[in-house]
């Protein structure tokens, strides 16, 4: 009797662990479909744009401010970008001087830093914030110009 109860308990426990694992994994996935912009807008307040969309945004948005939040700015950056690295606090210092009504495109060389930079702007009340998916590498891979 004890062996049967122990086996049932282990089976139930294994099922619960499996269900919890599925929930955790599904909560950590990224929307890889064509509609990532809508997904990130709802979840984070900024919009992810691929390099083609970013280039179009730059070309059609007068006064757009392109912010490189990486410490690798001197190795290459998008034309016209300004450098406010997240890592040294430059972005935090710059935020009070930026106009919340302007449009911003944020990128880095690493997703986590670009996401942090875009989110910092959103958290401070900026409403037109875009993040370049794939970051600097995706821009270069798309064949778009850079500055050094």
Strand order in space, largest sheet: 1-5-4-2-3
Question: What is the count of helical runs?
Answer: 6
CATH superfamily assignment of the largest domain? Rhodanese-like domain
% residues in beta strands: 5-15%
Mean pLDDT score: 81
Specify the CATH class of the largest domain. Alpha Beta
Structure description:
By secondary structure, the protein is of the alpha/beta class. The protein has 2 domains: 1-30; 36-141, 3-Layer(aba) Sandwich (Oxidized Rhodanese, domain 1). Helix content is 48%, strand content 11%. It contains 6 helices and 5 strands. The chain has helices spanning 2-28, 36-44, 51-60, 90-94, 111-123, 135-141; strands at 47-49, 65-68, 82-83, 104-107, 129-132. A 5-stranded parallel sheet has the order 1-5-4-2-3. Strand 4, helix 5 and strand 5 (129-132) form a beta-alpha-beta unit. The longest helix is centred in the N-terminal third of the chain and has 27 residues, at 2-28. The protein is globular and about 60 Å long. The termini are far apart. Mean pLDDT is 81; it is low at 20-42.
């Amino acid at each position: 009797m004890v062996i049967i109860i122990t086996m049932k308990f282990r089976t139930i426990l294994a099922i619960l662990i499996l269900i919890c694992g599925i929930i955790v994994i599904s909560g950590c996935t990224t929307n890889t479909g064509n509609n990532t912009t809508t997904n990130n807008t709802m979840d984070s307040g900024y919009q992810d744009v691929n390099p083609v969309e970013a280039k179009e945004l730059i070309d059609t948005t007068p006064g757009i401010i392109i912010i490189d939040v990486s410490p690798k700015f001197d190795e290459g950056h998008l034309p016209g970008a300004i450098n406010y690295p997240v890592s040294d606090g430059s972005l935090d210092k710059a935020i009070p001087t930026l106009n919340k009504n302007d449009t911003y495109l944020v990128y880095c060389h690493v997703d986590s830093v670009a996401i942090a930079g875009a989110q910092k702007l959103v958290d401070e009340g900026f409403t037109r914030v875009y993040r370049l998916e794939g970051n600097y590498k995706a821009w270069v891979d798309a064949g778009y110009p850079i500055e050094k």
